[in-house]
Amino acid sequence: MHSPSEDHMVAVMCILRYLKVTPGKGLMFFKYGHTDVEGYMDADWAGSITNRRSTSGYFTFVSDNLVTWRSKKKKVMSQSSVEAEYRGMAQGVCELL
């Protein structure tokens, strides 16, 4: 977010309080036909100014419901943008499987 406000912080705190008191809750999906599983991945190349490491992320939807997401700075430096994208894609595909 480019300009977070106090209202955004209040909303985040409400979500975190809810997650804290409901650790055993799960997601329930009803089958009304075909269940779609979709994954989206992205990565940048040498995006960190301090050490030029890449960051990649993915998120997964099941029947239009967000179920997993992750964003992480890579431990190794990619030599090209293609390598950074492939590393991010591999991480996302592993989550889909």
Counted by DSSP, the helix tally is 2
- Beta content: 15-25%
Low-confidence stretches: none
Strands of the largest sheet, in order across it?
1-2-3
The oligomeric state is: single chain
Supply the helix-strand structural class: alpha+beta
Which outline best applies? flat
N- to C-terminal distance: 31 Å
For the record, the count of structural domains works out to 1
Could you give the count of β-strands? 3
Overview in brief:
This protein is α+β, with helices and mostly antiparallel strands. 33% of the residues lie in helices and 25% in strands.
Describe the structure.
By secondary structure, the protein is an alpha+beta fold. The chain has one domain (28-96). It is built from 2 helices and 3 strands; from the N terminus they run H-E-E-E-H. The chain has helices at residues 6-21, 81-96, and strands at 37-43, 55-62, 65-73. It has a 3-stranded antiparallel sheet with strand order 1-2-3, with helices on one face. Strand 2 (55-62) and strand 3 (65-73) form a beta hairpin. The two termini are 31 Å apart. The model has no long low-confidence stretch (mean pLDDT 84).
